Amino acid sequence: MTESVKVMPALNSLKIKASLIVTMAIIATIRLTYEFNRLLWQTDENGAIDLKQRYEEVTAWFSSQLIYSEIFTAVYPPASYLMLRPFLDYKSFTYVRFFWAMTTVFALAGLVIGLIQAAQAKRPAEYALIALTVGAAYSTGPAVGNGQLTVHVLAALTIGLLLLFKKHQTLYLDLAGSSLIIFALIKPTLAAPFVWLIVFIPQRIWPIALVVVGYAAIALLACIPQTGNVLTLYADWLHRGVGGTTWSSAGGGGVGLVDIGYGNLHNYLGALGLSHLNMAASLGLLCLLGGWIYCHRHQQFDPWLAVGIAAIVARLWTYHLVYDDMLILLPMAAVYRLQKYPHLEPSDRAFSQTLLAITLFFNLLPASLRFAASPLDIVFQVGVTLNWLTLMGWLLVQVHRWKLPQPAPLNLT
Asked: Is pTM beyond 0.85 here?
């Protein structure tokens, strides 16, 4: 009788996991099929929205057109257009769509592999759960269908950080990891907060030196087709970017009269009529993150806890739309990884599991809820934001409580 009592919970647990995996597989299939159709075939204004904009901007940039004064959507820095050129600088936009779709598939695979490593998953069921979390998340679909950079950036960030956090380093690993971080800076609103991790956590000079020198070289080369020097062009970009976020967060960046950004400092400031403080607030939060990492640079804790915290700051610090909610996959991996350590208290383990389940629930919700009639739209937006803040708070608590088993290295990968 005792053995049967023990077996039943295990069977129930297996049934729950199997049901969850099947449900997520169905959601992922439906969402990704629809979004890849938008990326590849849809020819109206909803098809490959962002990819079209980047295609036009890259074409204009290398035709010496002054895009920051002439193209409203040009909110990327000069270096980004040079890094985008191998993907987008072709005569046929149809070819660009198919080529971008192929790179998106590779990026999704790379992101899944990176998250599996970051989460320290060991079993096939864990692999499936992580892969389906990426595929079924409400944010992944719009990133794919719009032809956004988010998937590529997160894949590069995740694998780059894994390489740079390895205990036994070689120049090859530093070069590979730093190159991926440089590529991730193609979208600085996503990647910039993570640079603090490269500055302070590896405790080596090579990673940050390679990132700074490499990005500076790309920026200089990118400015050759344009009139003006690198300083004036970056000033133009910053002016355009700040102006764009101010306009958007004050209610301009939306469908009709509805702003489609949410869950970030700029939207909150815009709601208070303080959009003129956007840049100062963003820089303040960015510096606060850097100061926190600096103060903890000698503390022996798993660096992936800091990665999760940086990801949430990256989602909050500036104006973002729904596809950038993919950033929350990183703190999810950090909390999942946390459960792998034997020093974790049973109560902490239980809370981590509950928090992951709640976060997964939010990630499976339809993103269209943000357009629902009030108060459902507010429930979605406030709910996901509170979930992110709870994740960040929990990771901060765990850094404070961190106790390494002895002996143990700093960088656990």
From this structure: yes
Give the closest residue to 303 by CA, choosing from 167, 170, 192, 410: 410
Burial of 46 (0-12, 13-18, 19+ CB in 10 A): exposed
CB 39 within 8 A of CB 97: yes
Q: What is the pLDDT of residues 31-57, one digit of tens each?
A: 999 999 999 999 888 899 999 999 999
Contact by Cβ (8 Å): 152, 104: yes
DSSP 411: -
Backbone phi and psi for residue 254, each to the nearest 5 degrees, phi listed first: -145, -175
Both tokens of 231, joined, read 């300083």
Q: Within 13 Å and on the Cβ side, how many CA atoms surround 81?
A: 32
Looking up tokens 């946390």, which residue turns up?
338
Place of tokens 């303040």: 284
Q: What are the distances in angstroms from CA 72 to CA 53, 81, 389?
A: 10, 15, 32
**Residues 299/305/309/315 CA torsion (nearest 10 deg):** 150
Identify the H or E element spanning 199: helix 195-200
Q: Render the burial of 222-237: b for 16+ CB within 10 Å, e for the rest.
A: bbeebeeebeebbebb
158-164: long-range contacts (C-beta < 8 A, 24 or more apart)?
A: 158/110, 158/111, 158/114, 158/115, 158/118, 158/330, 159/110, 159/113, 159/114, 160/184, 161/118, 161/194, 161/197, 161/303, 161/307, 162/114, 162/117, 162/118, 162/413, 164/198, 164/202, 164/207
Give 363-391 pLDDT, tens digit per residue. 999 988 888 777 777 888 889 999 999 99
